[in-house]
Design a protein that fits this description.
heterodimer; A: 729 residues; mainly alpha; 3-stranded antiparallel sheet; two-stranded antiparallel ribbon; 26 helices; 61% helix; B: 71 residues
């Protein structure tokens, strides 16, 4: 049999040999601690960026490149998604997988590699994102060496999980594990496809996709990062920890099977709802909307299944803080999965998109669903792993109410701000003119709401600090159980399936088949959406006058990406009169064919920049210079951070030639051998821009700007949106 | 009133076609399967998170139909 010590028990016949083994708690504890530490850090960064929107020129961050909003916002999103929730997923998976399969994890070593590898990746993100090392795609900002590390560690995790399933002592694979398998396979596919990039050097790469295609791939990824990183693994945890915490079986196992297949089948198609009214082909937008609306059914089925598991045990919610968190988490899941489909209806999206409404929606999900579910599991798990009682029920209850209050104070002002701003953008007077022609008027209006939001976030964070204290005290009052011994009969190798067994049952028993079919379902959705956009030429009509960027503009674009400008500025004018009045001609798919990566953005804290270089939006070079150094010198009341370092730092042209070569590889039509001439052209254009700034401001000394980063940025901004109005060459 | 709202949604005529084809083919099959599941199996599977303790004696090897199997 096995090397495990075995005991034979049995009363008469049948006789069953029990194997003794031990569940590993060390890895679970480590991931729990990592989730707490990074969760606190990620939320703190969130609070800082929230305060930056109220006090943009506060001395702690004003003029400091690595603390500017555009660099910290990716740090916040990556930290809370991949560090807080990510470690939370691994904690829950390593705890529940062992117990549901009645076996220790396949390999302690793989578990250790997974743990330390993941934390190393997080540290690499913590350093690289504030330094502006970014590939410029939301929630996928990490550069290519880190992307490869993520892939390797993800494989280690998957291998450990699959091998644990293979060596299990329980025939049936519980539904929570299906969710884990779907998570693993889908995140692997999404991560690899969205991060296909060609390196320029160790810290810089260009995505292989351009413009509309890049947008479609990015939001296929971005949406499904929400689906398969923030949702499916946590649904698996819900299906394990809620029955655990109430000591009741799941309400309907049948419903959970439907929930699983329906959710993974439908979710993968919904990505294009992030691109409604953009230059994405209409059929793809409609497809995204249809599937998003269909998502209500499985989402609510799952939510009700979670809540109804508490049937007959609601009285326990009063006394058990963990349950309070779990119940509100599932309720928040229900609210955000109702809101999501509503937001993906085009006419609602026309109002909500690019505003703080999206931010509110996201935070109901993250603070409510992910945050509260994680906290609930902590409160349930810590006393059990340390074999003691929760140190302070009172503190946990206070945390619950602070957290709830924090969510309310965070989201209500954001809904309010989103609607307010959207209505202001769209308001016309009796003469058909925009009432708020100055975009800034629609921003300054929101600052009190931003203030209340920061307060809500701070309250939520205070609750987290109380939890950390409570959990430390709990751990100190008990003894950590490194291992938990258990016994179970081995799985009989010669399993005789029932005569009339259903095919689905066979899949449920075979994890690799389950993995395969889940992959197939997920790929169908992705392929149906993406292949036509890549293969059918009419989907992206080319525009003859659209030309590649000059070397200086390309360098400027890379600075735009580095500074995270896309976190506050869109480059996508939707075909609404309120937008064409404000920004000019709406954006066409053919305008973005050389954009690696696309920079359409998803939020307008500042105005759209798609036509920044054209028509009534075009400003002088000196205006841009002054505005970048101190935005409030040209735009009173602006909440944009200043970028004084752009005028100090020398423009690095050492990679310019390589960048041109990589772009050529990607199909951008620079002339043969142009890379050799690129730097000379760059310097000539930079000289011109610096000269115009010096002349306009009457300060000859400003000619020295010609070798600074700021001229590249200005060159890029002045080029934006101009090509379609030129004569075709 | 609600009809006007619906009409204002772009391409709404396509929605039912997409939804119909996909739902029918996929979910009918799934529903048929799920409701044909044996009740005893289902309740055992539903309770799986609760049984990570050592099972009580006598140890009975599980099978899906809940019957005792001879090993």
């Amino acid at each position: 049999m096995t090397n495990n010590p075995t005991i034979t028990k049995g009363v008469g016949n049948p006789v069953q040999t029990l194997e003794r083994f031990a569940y590993d708690n060390v890895l679970v504890r480590n991931f729990a601690i990592a989730s707490i530490v990074w969760g606190f850090a990620g939320m703190l960064v969130g609070l800082i960026v929230a305060l930056q929107m109220v006090y943009p020129s506060f001395f702690l961050w004003d003029g400091i490149s690595w603390l500017s909003f555009g660099r910290l916002r990716p740090l916040h999103t990556n930290a809370v998604i991949f560090a807080f929730v990510g470690n939370g997923i691994f904690m829950g998976v390593y705890y529940s997988l062992q117990r549901l399969l009645k076996t220790r994890m396949y390999s302690d070593l793989l578990g250790q590699i997974h743990f330390w590898g993941w934390q190393t990746i997080i540290v690499a993100a913590l350093v690289s994102l504030p330094l502006g090392i970014s590939s410029g795609k939301e929630y996928a900002e990490l550069e290519w060496p880190i992307d490869i590390a993520i892939t390797l560690i993800w494989v280690v995790f998957g291998l450990n999980m699959i091998m644990t399933i293979v060596k299990r002592r329980e025939r049936h694979i519980y539904v929570a594990i299906w969710f884990y398998i779907a998570t693993w396979v889908t995140v692997a596919v999404l991560h690899i496809v969205n991060n296909l990039e060609i390196p320029v050097n160790f810290l810089k790469s260009y995505t292989v996709f351009a413009g509309v295609q890049d947008a479609l791939v990015q939001w296929w990824y971005g949406h499904n990062a929400v689906a398969f990183f923030l949702t499916t693994p946590y649904l698996g945890l819900m299906y394990y920890f809620i029955p655990k915490a109430v000591n009741r079986p799941v309400y309907s196992y049948r419903l959970s099977i439907i929930h699983f297949w329906a959710l993974i089948f439908i979710y993968i198609w919904a990505g294009p709802h992030h691109l409604l009214y953009t230059a994405l082909p209409d059929w793809a937008q409609s497809l995204g909307t249809v599937f998003s609306i269909m998502l209500i059914a499985p989402s609510w089925g799952g939510m009700l299944n979670g809540l109804l598991t508490l049937r007959g045990a609601w009285d326990r919610v009063r006394n058990e803080p963990a349950l309070k968190f779990l119940v509100v988490a599932v309720t928040a899941y229900g609210m955000s999965t109702f809101e999501g489909p509503m937001l993906s209806i085009k006419s609602v999206n026309a109002i909500s998109h690019y505003t703080d409404w999206t931010i509110a929606h996201v935070h109901v999900g993250t603070l409510g669903w992910n945050g509260f579910l994680t906290f609930g599991i902590f409160y349930w798990l810590f006393p059990r792993m340390w074999k003691t009682k929760l140190y302070s029920m009172k503190s946990a209850n206070t945390h619950f109410w602070l957290g709830t209050l924090g969510i309310i104070m965070y989201t209500i002002p954001m809904y309010w701000a989103g609607l307010t701003q959207s209505l202001m953008w769209k308001e016309f007077d009796a003469d058909g003119m925009l009432v708020y022609r100055n975009f800034l008027d629609t921003v300054t209006q929101l600052i009190p709401m931003y203030g209340i939001r920061a307060l809500g976030g701070a309250i939520y964070l205070v609750g987290v600090i109380m939890m950390i204290w409570n959990l430390i005290k709990t751990a100190q009052s008990g003894i950590f159980q490194r291992e938990e011994s258990a016994e179970a009969p081995a799985l009989q190798r010669a399993y005789q399936p029932e005569h009339n067994e259903h095919w689905h049952r066979k899949i449920e028993r075979r994890p690799l088949q389950m993995l395969f079919w889940a992959t197939v379902l997920v790929l169908i959705g992705g392929l149906v959406e993406m292949v036509p956009t890549f293969m059918v030429k009419e989907n992206i009509p080319t525009i003859a006058s659209v030309q590649p960027y000059t070397p200086l503009e390309l360098e400027g674009r890379d600075i735009y990406v580095r500074e995270g400008c896309y976190t506050c500025h869109s480059q996508m004018i939707r075909p609404f009169r309120s937008e064409t009045e404000r920004y000019g001609e709406y954006s066409k798919a053919g305008e973005f064919v050389y954009d690696h990566p696309f920079q359409w953005g998803s939020k307008r804290t500042g105005p759209d920049l798609a036509r920044e270089g054209y028509g009534k939006l075009r400003k002088s070079n000196s205006w841009h210079y002054n505005h970048m150094i101190d935005p409030r010198s040209t735009s009173s009341g602006s909440i944009m951070p200043g970028y004084p370092w752009l005028a100090d730092d020398l423009l690095n042209t050492s990679s310019t030639a390589d960048k041109i070569s990589v772009m050529q590889t990607l199909g951008v039509p620079y002339a043969e051998g142009y890379s050799a001439q690129a730097v000379a052209d760059l310097q000539a254009q930079a000289k011109e821009i610096a000269a115009s700034i010096a002349t306009e401001l009457g300060e000859p000394s400003l000619q020295q700007l010609e070798d600074r980063e700021i001229v590249a940025m200005i060159a890029y901004l002045q080029r934006l949106g101009t090509d379609v109005f030129k004569e075709a060459k | 009133m609600y009809k006007d709202v619906l009409r204002s949604i772009a391409d709404i005529d396509l929605f039912p076609v997409f939804a119909f084809v996909i739902f029918i083919t996929f979910f009918v099959g799934l529903l048929v399967y799920v409701f044909r599941l044996d009740k005893k199996d289902v309740s055992r599977m539903a309770a799986m998170p609760l049984e990570d303790q050592v099972p009580a004696e006598p140890i009975v090897p599980f099978s899906f139909n809940g019957q005792v199997k001879n090993s």
